[in-house]
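Budget justification aside, the reviewers requested a transparent look at the raw inputs and outputs of the sequence design task funded under Objective 1. We therefore reproduce one unedited record. The lines immediately below are the structure tokens for a 639-residue chain.
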């Protein structure tokens, strides 16, 4: 088996592909991280404070979240990308291990981000659409020639995240689905979309009310998840898998309220886009002819750096740069200028033959690049324009020039100290091609063993209710459990048993919370609305906390009271209530969650069920007390 995997790895390393897909994946993966940190910062009191606004957590958490945001921005723009990836990975570990995220505010999202985040540390994600590649171009700049850093990578850089983050997760999830009653009946994708706690405001009843379509969708998810890891690297299957996977996770984003997980899964599909599509997209995106021709001094180091920087950000290829010494006299618009005048300023010609120089050249460059047009318009503003003109004149008059001699024609490789070459250092630490292949093959074997341990432990033995008998079996079970704890924390390898029969069975009630305003009128907290839906922004982690931990088929009273305290303190303060004397009303309503049969219009019936008052939440002197209605047993709620 090892030799087979090694052979596949060696073939993958030999096949070189563009890195544009990795660059786009890095950007959107970073955006998913960014929005999640913003979410954590907004809900920092609810998540991290033992009692929001009353018993507060350490303010260090707020500071660390800000540092995390800054690091994520570096990761998105590709500045010190590898270091940013390492720091991001440790931030996920810190927050999931040492804060309530994993225990109370989880939902499977953190494990995916940890696993993929670890892989990104070792992938060449900085080779496209990054400031790191610009740094290399500037670092190894020589007059008369420009350095182009590597823009290709082995196809394994795409295949490994797809196989590990998606393929193994799908396969493990499928193992659990096969034991779930609603998935066996083809209702796995239908049931959560009828449950008020899980639905979004988009009403898709016209789809939910088609029984045959729902069962086709349910069974197709099982088939898709099973075949993905075995087929995604075949060209014939790539586009069908890409389309189905994108539709699947777009559906999660739009119609359920666990959008962070949906987005995190969806961005991985940038790695499945055929490489020819990226080339065609690039060709179609770029202009056929430049909109502006800029004449620059080839013997000016500052001018050469300017050219490299602008070309790096000119995604449309709207700017064409020509050396003054070579091309200036070929343009009649500048023939009347002396050599001294030409070297004094930066000149540009647009398609209409209009000549620009000085600060106006930079304004035209910003306008023609399109996405920087706003900066160009700001620079044209009176006052800013004259201030910028003075700065430009000062820099232009003080810039240094170098006479172009044999130095300009010297090959770049001979002119740089290989000891400090980034490429040479990377190759040194990566080892020979054979060493790299062996390391990757061993890593894949390790991941397979750890994932197999999780799937067998929870997906088969637990589902079949098989318990270890005998000392050896118990020892092996304990070792397996210990390995699971480590792989869970550091690699994100966990059982993907989300929203199965053991979660929905007996889940025939939901709770909501209202409050009395200053006029004594009953109002719904901006948390759960009258339909029973969790409204924005209480999605993702907060939804998971309430629907998976606080309110369950068998409600744990202390756990529910803990989160009722958090919700009422957090949102009560947000709506302006004084926790010295605030009263909230706990409401409940009955819902239906059939596992073995389909029912028409169940979504509407569940959201239209009437509410019943079952108790009060009373805050006095910043202390919460719950009074249940007579005859109500919250742990065995029956409506």
């Amino acid at each position: 088996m090892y030799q087979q995997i090694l052979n596949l790895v060696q073939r993958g390393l030999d096949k070189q592909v563009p890195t544009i897909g990795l660059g786009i994946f890095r950007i959107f993966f970073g955006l998913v991280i960014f929005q999640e940190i913003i979410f954590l910062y907004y809900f920092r009191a609810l998540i991290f404070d033992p009692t929001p606004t009353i018993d507060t957590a350490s303010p260090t958490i707020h500071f660390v979240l800000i540092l995390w945001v800054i690091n994520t921005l570096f990761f998105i723009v590709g500045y010190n990308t590898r270091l940013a990836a390492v720091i991001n990975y440790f931030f996920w570990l810190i927050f999931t291990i040492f804060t309530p995220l994993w225990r109370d505010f989880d939902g499977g999202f953190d494990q995916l981000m940890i696993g993929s985040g670890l892989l990104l540390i070792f992938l060449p994600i900085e080779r496209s659409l990054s400031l790191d590649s610009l740094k290399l171009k500037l670092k190894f700049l020589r007059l008369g020639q420009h350095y182009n850093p590597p823009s290709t990578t082995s196809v394994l850089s795409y295949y490994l995240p797809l196989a590990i983050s998606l393929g193994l997760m799908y396969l493990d999830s499928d193992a659990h689905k096969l034991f779930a009653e609603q998935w066996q009946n083809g209702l796995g994708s239908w049931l959560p979309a009828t449950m008020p706690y899980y639905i979004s405001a988009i009403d898709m009843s016209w789809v939910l009310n088609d029984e045959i379509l729902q069962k086709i969708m349910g069974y197709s998810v099982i088939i898709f998840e099973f075949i993905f890891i075995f087929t995604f690297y075949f060209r014939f299957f790539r586009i069908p898998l890409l389309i189905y996977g994108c539709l699947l996770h777009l559906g999660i984003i739009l119609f359920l309220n666990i959008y962070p997980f949906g987005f995190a899964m969806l961005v991985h599909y940038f790695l499945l886009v055929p490489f020819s599509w990226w080339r065609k997209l690039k060709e179609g995106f770029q202009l056929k002819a430049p909109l502006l021709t800029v004449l620059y001094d080839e013997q000016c180091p500052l001018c050469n750096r300017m050219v490299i920087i602008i070309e790096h950000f000119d995604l449309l290829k709207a700017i064409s740069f020509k050396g003054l010494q070579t091309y200036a006299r070929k343009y009649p618009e500048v023939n009347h200028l002396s050599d001294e005048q030409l070297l004094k300023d930066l000149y540009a010609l647009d398609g209409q033959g209009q000549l620009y120089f000085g600060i106006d050249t930079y304004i035209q460059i910003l306008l023609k690049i399109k996405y920087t047009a706003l900066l160009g318009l700001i620079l044209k503003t009176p006052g800013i324009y004259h201030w910028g003109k003075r700065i430009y004149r000062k820099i232009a008059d003080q810039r240094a020039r170098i006479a172009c001699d044999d130095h300009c024609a010297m090959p770049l490789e001979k002119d740089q100290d290989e000891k400090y070459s980034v490429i040479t250092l990377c190759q040194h630490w990566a080892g020979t091609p054979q060493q790299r292949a062996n390391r990757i093959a061993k890593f894949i074997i390790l991941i397979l063993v750890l994932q197999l341990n999780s799937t067998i432990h929870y997906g088969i033995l637990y589902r079949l209710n098989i318990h270890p008998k005998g000392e050896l079996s118990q020892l092996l079970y304990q070792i397996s459990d210990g390995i699971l704890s480590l792989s869970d924390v550091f690699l994100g390898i966990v059982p993907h048993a989300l929203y199965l029969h053991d979660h929905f069975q007996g889940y025939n009630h939901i709770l909501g919370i209202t409050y009395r305003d200053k006029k004594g009128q009953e109002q719904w907290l901006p948390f759960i609305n009258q339909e029973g839906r969790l409204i924005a922004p209480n999605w993702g982690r907060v939804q998971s906390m309430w629907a998976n931990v606080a309110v369950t088929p068998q409600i744990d009273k202390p756990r529910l009271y803990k989160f009722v305290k958090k919700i009422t303190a957090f949102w009560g303060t947000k709506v302006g209530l004084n926790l010295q004397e605030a009263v909230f009303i706990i409401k409940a309503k009955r819902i239906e969650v059939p596992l073995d049969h389909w029912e028409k219009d169940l979504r509407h019936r569940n959201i239209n069920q009437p509410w019943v008052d079952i108790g009060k939440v009373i805050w006095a002197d910043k202390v919460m007390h719950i009074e249940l209605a007579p005859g109500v047993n919250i742990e065995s709620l029956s409506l």
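Confidence is low (pLDDT under 50) at residues 404-425. The first helix runs from residue 2 to 14. Computational costs for records of this kind are itemized in the attached budget.
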